[in-house]
Design brief:
The complex is a heterodimer of chains A (436) and B (224). Chain A has 436 residues and is α/β, with parallel strands linked by helices. In chain A, 29% of the residues lie in helices and 21% in strands. The chains are: A alpha/beta (436), B alpha/beta (224).
């Protein structure tokens, strides 16, 4: 095994490497075992036959038992020095984006933890480019991470095109093996394999599931960053505690209330329908929904249909087929063909996709409409609704589009989402935003 | 509140009036309703020899090719759910998942007629890396006899990584432990294994058991 494989990482190895130090994977603290990779407690029931504890929390990364050892070599930043900027991006930032990009770069140079709060489709990725180019030129080790694998998969080719430095992409079930590179693109789960590795950590969609609710992953992010390093959070819908950190000035913040093409966000239109789920078994959907989808189909418009639960996917598809509508493709988190199906709509091969909240963010489909079925369901948070609405009108040639939310009843989350978009649009209009 | 051992979601067990009236300990399932639904025991017509799920009840092609009268019973078809289960339990080594199958095994063993229960052993190397025998993990309080040993030198690769031809040509990996004949003489032996794929492993084991003087050998596997 090459030495560089261990730089800034924390890996279980069967044989001790030539250099680097090892620690036991599980450590006993006050009589309870604690995993040193994911920092979770081992339950008293999780023992192998000979009373050997093992960690079930990070089992997917390979089992750790009390007999395993984790090895690491401190990150040495052994990269080729760059004399010129590695940025090789032909695109141009708009004046508003440029101002934001310069602010981000300034905070990065100062080594401050920061938040970029930009509306969906503002071009957050590109705004990060100048700062990233600067960081890579300094010989920093940088990770661009996201809790969503779709986000990483969409991002990787864009970064590969824009930056001329070696890059590695990590996610569960990746095809290529790990390589020691200045730029790492990975899911937040993969950060559990790192320790004090990154000078700068970009966390894309920081408020997304499962990072927002998982102490395990929040810890992974914290530990993967060097003690001297800093981080940049990217999101369109920061949660309460991020906003609180901004107020306490623990996070520097850059706002961007306007999309990159200068058009305003499409507002969420709420339509009240009856109890649609009850009639789903017949199989029927409310006529208003069917009429709208039929119109989309006749005018060859693509649409995303969001449903609250995985269990709703196939009944809805069945009901659409029953109404002689193209049922489209369904996608959920555990779908084995998930990546190929998402790629199919991105390539405009399919016209409609029925999905759950997994596609609420981080993915760009050209010219789609969004239909949310059951927007009043508890699984749709305000952030989720705003993000789903943000799938519409991301392309400068197609800045318009509809966001229709079918609800059984009005809820606070729906109203807050509508209000959030209205507020952002009001701010955007002041910067010269136009209605599509 | 308890979580499902497989998917970690909270298990909600509805306490019925009937259950309270029975005055027995309330049932506390290890699995949630969704996971329980995913696990579908064999239901369609089966091959009478190996228990494979098929469209007719005739002896299947594989069993005809063996040309013997081996009897195997299985609990589940080896479908995507079982594959996912075996992947996590056996190959990732999640020993706690043994709880998922324990009730099914208990029920299946109660329906079998046998004198001695013999689980298929694992090699010493597997024991070192995996840390447990996946078959004995499913047994709760049923007595069993570990009369077989497996020779790692004659089994350099796991069966699951071979093609059908390679599996069929694999040499005898088992041998009897000293003193096994005393336990086996004139007994009806039930072999227990995780997956019946070609039937090679079980027949190898049965050959040795017969050499030990058993009068009959049948087998039970979790999946077919």
């Amino acid at each position: 095994m090459e030495k560089s494989q261990l730089f800034g990482r924390r890996l279980p190895l069967e044989q001790a490497p030539a250099s680097g130090h090892g620690i036991p994977a599980l450590r006993q603290v006050n009589g309870r075992w604690r995993c040193q990779r994911c920092q979770q407690w081992v339950a008293t029931t999780d023992y192998l036959p000979q009373q050997i504890p093992y960690c079930r929390h990070c089992l997917n990364l390979g089992r750790l038992t009390a007999h395993t050892k984790l090895y690491t070599i401190p990150e040495p930043n052994q990269f080729a020095t760059l004399t010129e900027s590695p940025l090789n991006w032909p695109g141009q930032l708009s004046p508003i984006q440029l101002a934001a990009a310069q602010a981000v770069k300034r905070y990065t140079m100062a080594g401050r933890d920061q938040l970029l709060w930009a509306v969906t489709g503002a071009g957050k990725t590109e705004i990060g480019f100048p700062a990233l180019a600067w960081a890579l030129q300094q010989g920093w080790r940088v990770a661009w991470t996201s809790p969503r694998v779709d986000v990483c998969l969409e991002l990787a080719p864009r970064l590969a095109q824009a930056f001329t430095v070696p890059q590695t992409v990590l996610y569960g079930g990746q095809a290529l093996p790990y390589k020691y590179c200045p730029l790492t693109i990975c899911t937040t789960h993969q950060l559990l394999r790192f320790e004090a590795a990154f000078d700068w950590l970009i966390v894309d969609e920081v408020d997304a599931f499962p990072l927002a609710t998982s102490p395990l992953l929040q810890l992974a992010v914290k530990r993967a960053q060097k003690p001297t390093g800093s981080h940049l959070y990217l999101t369109a819908t920061p949660g309460r505690d991020l906003q609180r950190q901004v107020q306490r000035r623990q996070l520097a913040v850059t706002y961007l209330p306007l999309r990159y093409h200068g058009y305003l966000l499409p507002p969420i239109q709420v339509r009240l329908v009856g109890n649609w789920r009850q009639r789903l078994s017949q199989p029927r959907l409310p006529g208003a929904i069917l009429r709208r989808l039929r119109r989309y189909q006749q005018t060859q418009q693509r649409y995303l249909l969001f449903v609250p639960h995985v269990a709703d996917l196939s009944p809805v598809q069945h009901a659409l087929q029953h109404a002689h509508l193209d049922g489209g493709v369904t996608v959920h988190a555990a779908d084995p063909d998930r990546q190929s199906k998402v790629q199919a709509i991105r390539d405009q091969q399919v016209t409609s996709l029925i999905t759950t909240t997994i596609l609420e963010r981080g993915v760009t489909f050209p010219a789609v409409n969004v239909v949310i079925l059951g927007g009043d369901d508890a699984v749709f948070s305000t952030a989720a609704l705003v993000q789903m609405a943000g799938r519409v009108g991301r392309h400068p040639d197609h800045p318009g589009g509809e966001v229709i939310c079918y609800c059984h009843s009005q809820t606070r989350a729906v109203q807050r989402a509508q209000r959030m978009i209205r507020t952002l649009n009001r701010k955007g209009r002041r910067l010269g935003g136009r209605r599509p | 509140m308890k979580n499902c051992v497989w998917c970690q979601r909270p298990v909600t067990s509805g306490v019925t009036l009937a259950a309270m009236w029975r005055w027995a300990p309330l049932p506390s399932p290890n699995l949630c309703a969704v996971c329980q639904k995913r696990l579908r025991p064999l239901h369609a017509p089966q091959c009478p020899r190996c228990g494979r799920q098929q469209s007719t009840t005739k002896v299947c092609h594989d069993c005809e090719r063996w040309g013997d009268s081996w009897v195997n019973h299985a609990i589940f078809p080896y479908d995507a759910t079982l594959k996912a289960y075996m992947q996590q339990y056996k190959f990732q080594g999640d020993y706690r998942l043994r709880l998922v199958m324990q009730p099914y095994l208990r029920q299946a063993l109660a329906q079998e007629r046998y004198d001695v229960l013999v689980p298929i052993p694992v090699t010493a190397e597997t024991w070192l890396t995996r840390g447990f025998n996946q078959v004995t993990g499913w047994l709760t309080d049923q007595p069993f006899q570990q009369v077989l040993t497996v020779d790692a030198a004659r089994k350099p690769r796991p069966q699951s990584s071979k093609t059908r031809q390679e599996r069929l040509q694999s040499p005898q990996p088992f041998s009897l432990q000293p003193g096994a004949t005393k336990l086996l003489r004139n007994q009806h032996v039930l072999l227990l294994d995780d997956v019946y794929t070609t039937g090679r492993t079980l027949r190898h084991a049965a050959t040795q058991i017969y050499l030990g003087g058993a009068k009959a050998v049948t087998s039970l596997t979790l999946a077919r």
